[in-house]
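chain below, 197 aa
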Amino acid sequence: MILSVENVVKQYRRRFKDGFRLEASFTVEKPAIVGVMGPNGSGKTTLFELITGSNAPTSGRVMCAGQDVHGVKASQRDRLAIHYHQSYQVRRFARRRPDFLLEPARSDYPMVHLFDEPQFNNQDGYIGFMLDFFRRLRGEGRVVFLCLHPTERYHLEILREVCERFVFVDRGKISLFPDFESLAADATAAGYLGTTA
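prediction:
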C-alpha cells in the first residue's frame, strides 16, 4: 500500500457560520497517475496539504509507505509526499511539534508527488516532456496526483491521456472514479466540466 487516507476530516469553524469541512477516505495501492478536479474552494489543495503533512487533520490519519505522515519529522515529510504548486514550487509548512519527538522517514525519495495546478506551456514539446516525467515517476513505483482546472480543452486531453483514475472534490466531499468516462458520466462532475468535456 503506497497511500492510505483513512477517514480524514478537516474542519474549519467560523463564527456565526458552519465553516468548511473536508472528508476523505481512499487508498492507492500501486503506482498510478491520479487526476484531481473540482471547483475552486472545494478542498483540493487542503487534501494535498493533509497528504503531505503540512496541514493537520481534525481526525483520521494519512499513511504513506507504511508511515503516519503526521508522525514523521517535519523536515523529512517530503521524503514521503511532496506538494508542487503551480510553477512547480514546493509547498512549505509550519512545524507544530519538534522534530526530535517524531520518527524519521523510512524513504529517501518521495513516494507521492502532488502537482497542484501546474502550468503547461503548450509550445516546444513541453507538455510531452511533463507527461513523460509523470509516467517515469509511476514507472519508478511512485504515485502522481495531477490537479488541473479544465479552463482549456487541452487540459482535459492531458488528463484523459495520462491519468488512470480520478478524484473529484466538491464542497469537501470526495468522489472516486476508475476512468474519465465514469467521471464525465457523473452529473455533478459533468456540470463542472461543462463544454470543455
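The radius of gyration is 17 Å. The helical segments are 44-52, 126-139, 153-162, 180-185, 187-193.
thats it, cya
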